Amino acid sequence: MDNFQVETAQNVNIVQNVAGVGDRILAFLIDSAIMFIYIILVSILFSSLDFFSDSFLLVMTVMLPILLYHLLWEQFWNGQSPGKAVMKIRVVKLDGSKPAFSNYLIRWLLRIIDITILSGAVALVVILFNGRGQRLGDLAAATTVISEKKTISFAQTVLTDLPDNYNPVYPQVTIFTDAEMQTIKNMFQQAKYNGNHNVILKLSKRVSKVMEVQFETTPFTFIDTVIKDYNYYTQQL
Q: Quick one: residue 119, left, alpha or beta (phi over 0 = left, psi -120 to 50 = alpha)?
């Protein structure tokens, strides 16, 4: 599983675990199987009901859900189709946040080039050479597909990458335990993904109260600094 690092406008580095090509192919096959089963069931239903003999109605009933399958599932199921859910992969924006409908729409519109025309050959080549798990639709929509599989990796622990010349700001962070800091980090990352700034604000107030410090930066920057400072001081022990 590859990963890449993105620096946000707040100068925060976010590591994304890119979904493997194999997982994406299996997710595609699962979704294709679901669509095939749907076509068979609807066709059987229509053939058994004489008053549904309108061929146009049959085509619309079968083809419209198939055509909109990925767009609707990803929009209303938080970036996942059934196949993606089974493989534990998800569509997100490059900064890890939840895509808007326009992002899903752009990547869906470009499926015809990426996947439909040459059976996924274009998507496969672009993904392999891109390095960020992006097909053409993802490049245009500023999205990618990440893996949510529970693997023990550096990015998923309390540990955080620090530059060699890092200067800590809050020595008071050592008041927290590893478990407490992991909870803070998890809440922070989840709030970033969901764009829930209110959670980050409340978290920053709570953390600053426990540490008995005042911060002059944004709540986002404060929590990010606290996590980095904790890593700096605990790694020195």
A: left
